Fold:
Amino acid sequence: MRLLFILLIVGIWIGLLVGLSFIEAPLKFQAPNITLKLGLGIGQIMFYVLNKIEIAFALLLIGLYYPFGKQIGYGLGAALIALYALLIIQTFVLLPVLDHRATLIIQNQEVVHSYHHIFYIVGECLKLFLLFFVFFKTVPLLKQAI
Structure:
């Protein structure tokens, strides 16, 4: 039952990531009458909420995987650690910088060129890869448990 819950959480996380980061975020700027300021304001709220959900999922997964100990193997363990490290970097380094930049743009202030947005997008791609890896490495554990 625990493994099914893990797969459910990881599957939902994948869906949220694809739906919000890769579909909603770029498409909102193509909607009629959406200004850069409005799109950035929506993005700030959406990514704040998504990040909090991701943190909750990460904490749940730590608790759910813990009883399996060494059973999860080095590959799955390393993928989980990389996923958590990436989430920490996004939460405490990239999102605050991007949020500040968005706020400055909304307030009509100048911003200097930065690669933080590209780093964030690369992080989202890595996170998606890691989540798929975690999902497919967990499936054999479920088969063993049945």
Q: What stands out?
A: DSSP finds four helices and no strands in the chain. The CA atoms of residues 31 and 39 lie 9 Å apart.
